[in-house]
Amino acid sequence: MKEKRRTWDLPFYSFNDDEKIKEWKKYALEVVAKLANGNVGLIADTGTGKTIMAFLVAEALGVRTLFVTPTVILTNQHASLYRNVVGDEATILHGKKTKRDWTRGKMVIATPHVFEVDYKKGFIIPELFDLLIVDEMHKARGKYPYIFVANKFLRAFDKHILCLSASPGASQGAIKEIEGTFGIRNWVTADIQKPITRHYLIKANLDHVPELREATAYFKSEYAQVLIKLQNIFDSVNKKVIPSVNRENVFLTQEQNNLLDKEINNLPKPKFYAAKSFFACQYKLAYLFHVLMTEGYSSFIKQIEEGLLKDSSKAAKAILSSRGLNRIYQQIKRLDLCSHPKEKELLKLLEKLNTENKSCLVFVASKKLAIDLSERFNNLGFRSDTLFGKSGKSIKEQLDVIERFRNKDITIIFATSVVEEGLSLPEIGAVIHYNQPMSEISSLQRNGRTGRFFQGEVYFLIADIPYENALYYATRHKLRKMREIFYDQPKLPSGGTQQTSFSKKEKSKKKKKGLEGQLTISWPEDDFL
Questions:
Q1: Average pLDDT rounded to a whole number, residues 199-228
Q2: Residue 514 neighbours by CB distance under 10 Å
């Protein structure tokens, strides 16, 4: 007798789409086949089912699997999804669990941080698993623990790695770095169609506010003076380091700041200390200016009162001693906090979405700004809450916000970057970038929070100043390049890793483990799904 087809009860909707299931199966089988020839990178747009495809791969292979994901809340959400997809319980391990058993269960979902901690204590070895699945592989940069996990699995014999991401980067260099980190030999691009998402750019004009015009003139002048003092120090050692000042945008880019910092570190000690102080001063001035222009009056006031006034550094004291800054601070304090041009544009946008009965996710730069905006807009009659990670909200509190959003008790979430990566949210009508994403991957992940099941909208709300304009257009250009690499070319980059065939000995060992025999796997129509 035929078994009844399973209807998937995913976290926020009941899924029974035969075409989507076929696509997931197809790409999962392609991954299974390519794993026989080396580790695999799976690329798919945010919200198209990367995690589901990864679970299907693990289930098809029938091997013990370690699934690493960046945050604690994601371990819980992925485990819930695994239960609904596979019908089995996953073992969840993270830093908030003091007793961790790495030997329990066929699927272990953990943060990379606890893997590193427990490995160093001798509590875990890669030999406990046959397959490693890495969520959000693009995070493998610098000292992030994904590097440690990958290194241990690459050293262990006959282990396989499947890496997931919407994109590992917008350049061949970034992709090759990821390939080297995880030993990726093959790429699979799951080109799964999503509903159309429309993008809109809204520019807030700051020129009509006299206080902001005066503040702009002050910060540009003060900043230029600090750069001149820095160059004077380098003149004494016959070095031209500071670039020519652009009247429209005097502020150094992050790349220029990094280069300048390296040059300062090479100075002899007496000059080094003076240069470091000026360097800190220009950095703080630029940050204060950008907070005022891109975040709002309240953030600017708090940055002075809770930041600079509590900062005992020489640079902070020099900035606070300025009569010009004190004058601007007093002027801004007298303004209506909601009257900042960017906040006024946000208010108009939220009112529009509210009349259209659309929920929205507003991305901001910091926890303080999220709380501040949520409180002010709630006072105006909106129903909002906040989402941010680390010590700001417990897992229970975060899940409670999501549940309230799903039940439409709230219709707006002000969130930091914690929501960018994989967090399962109910269908969202619109994403608003109140503060701009700092990278193309960040933009891609934020935008993917909407348009998962229905047409979505993405709004980029920027202050019409050189910094935000440059950031917006640079990110958009990198997104296009990223799409060209992974979707618009017939073949993915090989990264220079050589495609080699397995020896008879290796094939024999793989066959014993069941991997070779799974390459032609197909699921009965009325069985697995």
A1: 94
A2: 12
User: By C-alpha distance, which of 151, 70, 82, 161 is closest to 111?
Assistant: 70
CATH number, domain of 183, equals 3.40.50.300
- Residue found under tokens 């303080």: 368
Residue 413 domain flag: yes
How many Å apart are CA 359 and CA 10, to the nearest integer? Answer: 20
Q: What is the pLDDT of residues 249-306, one digit of tens each?
A: 789 988 889 999 999 999 998 899 999 999 999 999 999 999 999 999 999 999 999 9
Task: Provide the domain limits for residue 446.
Answer: 197-203+339-484
Q: Are 178 and 40 contacting, i.e. CB atoms less than 8 angstroms apart?
A: no
State phi, psi for 131 to the nearest 5 degrees.
Answer: -135, 135
Share of the chain above pLDDT 70, in %: 85
343 and 328 within one domain: no
Is there a contact between 130 and 160 (Cβ–Cβ < 8 Å)? yes
Q: Distance between CA atoms of 374 and 137, rounded to whole angstroms?
A: 32
pTM of the model: 0.79
**Residue 524: pLDDT over 60:** no
Give buried/exposed letters for 23-33 (b at 16+ CB in 10 A, else e): bbbebbbbbbb
Helix (H) or strand (E) holding 108: strand 107-110
Residue 361 in this model has a pLDDT that exceeds 60: yes
pLDDT at 26 over 70: yes
Residues 165, 289, single domain; the answer is no
Nearest to 318 by CA among 280, 350, 275, 354: 280
**Is 129 part of any domain?**
yes
CA gap 422, 165 in Å, rounded: 10
Report which listed range, 15-29, 98-112, 406-420, is most confident. 98-112
Give which of 402, 416, 391 is closest to 359, Cα–Cα: 402
**Start-to-end C-alpha separation, the chain:** 16
With beta carbons less than 8 A apart as the criterion, state whether 156 and 130 touch.
no
Tokens representing 156 are 């262990």
Kindly tell me if the per-residue pLDDT of 505 is higher than 60.
Answer: no
Do 368 and 412 fall into the same domain?
A: yes
DSSP assignments along 328-355, one per residue: HHHHHHTS-GGGSHHHHHHHHHHHHHHH
Residue 236 to residues 197, 239, 254, 268: CA-CA distances in angstroms?
55, 8, 25, 11
Which stretches does DSSP call E strand in 205-317?
none
How many distinct structural domains can be found in the chain?
3
